[in-house]
Write a structure and sequence with these properties.
- The protein is built from 13 helices and seven strands.
- It is α/β, with parallel strands linked by helices.
- It has two domains: 177 residues, Vaccinia Virus protein VP39 (Rossmann fold, 3-Layer(aba) Sandwich); 82 residues, Putative methyltransferase TM0872, insert domain (DNA polymerase, domain 1).
- A seven-stranded mixed beta sheet has the order 3-2-1-4-5-7-6, with helices on both faces.
- The N and C termini lie far apart (40 Å).
Amino acid sequence: MHLPVFLEEVIDYLDLNPGDRIFDATLGGGGHSKEILKRILPGGKLIAVDRDPEAIDRNRIQFQEFKNDVIFLNENFRDIDSIVEKTGIDQLDGAIFDLGFSSFQLDESERGFSFMNDGPLDMRYDKREGLSAKDVVNGFRESELIEIIREYGEERHAKLAARAIVAARKKNRIVTTGELVEIIKSAIGWRYTRQKLHPACRVFQALRIFVNAELAAVEEGVNRIFPYMKQGSRICVISFHSLEDRIVKNVFRNRSRSGEALLLTKKPIQPNRDEIRINPRARSAKLRVAERIV
């Protein structure tokens, strides 16, 4: 079951009312959207966006009773201008960006996101788009792999991991997550014996971010939504690692300095012990909120 992170905090900060028009940039498992709908109806409208077509299909069924109140779009939230044009809604009362991937994506081994389940080495949110993780690990130069793993995974042992990948693929093409996990464990696993973190965690994170161009999407999406926000409306962004959080922090800070936004969270909100106990995947989450003031 997918558990939305910071559900109570997001609902409180959005300050929802019947008739509001809300943008959910990352529909995922639909947890935030379900609670939002309860508060904006009657008369409200939810724009529900996700790059993953399976998320859209799954939520169309889940939200069948709200089919006239939700606009589902299989889009990248960075394309906000196109989304606004398609919906005809150019004034928003609130927005939520949950930058984590859903439990459905993580638990479905055929998607290739998890280092805990063996499956095809893919990692794309939408399989119709671009390169897969398999293409990257088998086709990129060692220097390029080092840069990806170091920059997007913040992995200190990027050279060792990349060198092991290149050596392994000379023998056989790497096609499954299980194969990649074993390669990484053999290269740097011994350096993680005293840590709770799985040795493949940061490498998988790096590949996922690179394959889906996630960081560029975050910067563009959060920036581009501001002109469509009404005065007094709020933007909530949940990030799950320092690279995302840094981008959101800078976007909000720049908007604040220009006089467009008020920072409602000077420092990011972090999950309490109860939420982490119920949902361990929330442990790295951070919530930042800004209000459009002009």
